[in-house]
Design goal:
heterodimer, A: mainly alpha, B: Helicase, Ruva Protein, domain 3, six-stranded mixed β-sheet, three-stranded antiparallel β-sheet, globular
Amino acid sequence: MGKLFAHIHRYRFLLGELVKKGIKLKYRRSYLGLFWTMLEPLLNMIVLSVVFGPLLGYSNDKTFPVYILAGRLLYTLFSQGTKEATRSIRVNAAMIKKVYVPKYLYPLSYILYNYILFLISLVVLVVVSLILGIFPTWQVLLSVIPLINVFLLTLGVGMILSTIGVYFRDMEYLWNVALTLLFYCSAVFYKVEKYADSMVAWVMKLNPLFSCIDNFRSCIFGTEFNWYYTLYCFAFSVICIVIGALAFYKKQDEFVLHI
Amino acid sequence: MEQNKKDPIIQLKDIGIRFNLSSEKVDSLKDYLIKSVKRDIHYNEFWALRNVSFELERGDRLGILGLNGAGKSTLMKIIAGVYHPTEGEMKIGGSIAPLIELGAGFDMEYTGRENIFLYGSVLGYSRKFLMSKYDEIVEFSELGKFIDVPLKNYSSGMRARLGFSIATVVEPEILILDEVLSVGDAKFRKKSEKKVTDMFSRGVTVLFVSHSIEQVKSICNKAILLEHGTVVAAGSAEEVAQIYASKIK
């Protein structure tokens, strides 16, 4: 473990450069640049609330857009981070084949830069909340917990996928489909209370991303914080990180032969 | 100090690397499942290198000769850490500047300036160090105002010049030269050769891959000859070059 940190310390400049590269290149040559990090979730929120607000009967709920935005932001972080982690080794094949670079830096840098963009996009959430009249209680401080949790979850799942992605290109497409399913199972645009005793609620409770989203929302709205969800998601993430790191560590020397 | 000089800086013992050349390309999950059920995955095992051993002391300059496909570049990539050897032991006792494929870490969307920091950090230099050497790199590469242009608009010669300038800005203990002394135009070639020979005179350990017997004779003191992944001759550059010359006649 100490060795790992020494290693990261030694390559911190490269990690920094890779993270910076991700952020810089994402919006290069677009007119609005980094502003898109905030504009995109905002527009998305409007679309989802216009469509699902009336459809599911939340038209009278003035805070529904905030509910959607909170869920949507966490979901986007998870989906973007894991998607890019899956591709991370293949995309950097040219470099991996020619110079020695610790390979875990690739998935890690993709997840980190998505997380930084995500943190920037939280500004929109604050602004929209205040406009729609949701003022923070002390509980907003607890939001640090789901924010850390969602990072660990993305990291764990991303590490596992990055190893699989080297051996099976199909994983990229398969994972896209899985993410669509996850989107519908994460209560991004509907409220679970309505379905409290059905199968839906049962599936939700197994979904660690939903645990994060639900807890994050309760921090914003000041409703009851679910420690059971926190613990579950944390345990799930740690197990993923351990599996992901072990698989990656065991297979990384072979990566160069498969890309 | 004298004692230290006698320590081998590079030590390779029975290094071998095996590649799996799949006879049929299996890169989709469906293919893999079907074929593994039918037990139909054949790997053509191929040893690109086998039983390669040698030792180099500080200041040694080793020439690596061999025909195309003999395993020269693979050996260099093992020493540079790109490939992990399947068997054998390897000890490296110093910092390496791999001038193998210059600009391997370049990003085409990035400008020359940004690439200096990206590629520099790939080679393990710190940001502070790169800042202090920035002017020197730009000057040596002769890119001038093109340094702020995205790399995709560079000519291949410009890219190679930038790569060479970044990679040689440090004083490495081990220098791997894989046919890179032919970078850029005649003028730049002369300049880069001078920079490399300056390093030689300061006692850097060199691994030099080349097809040119003359170059190996003039640069190296030791040499090995590779054939189908094994060392068939080793010794002084003079002797090995002669054996190689008689083989290709």
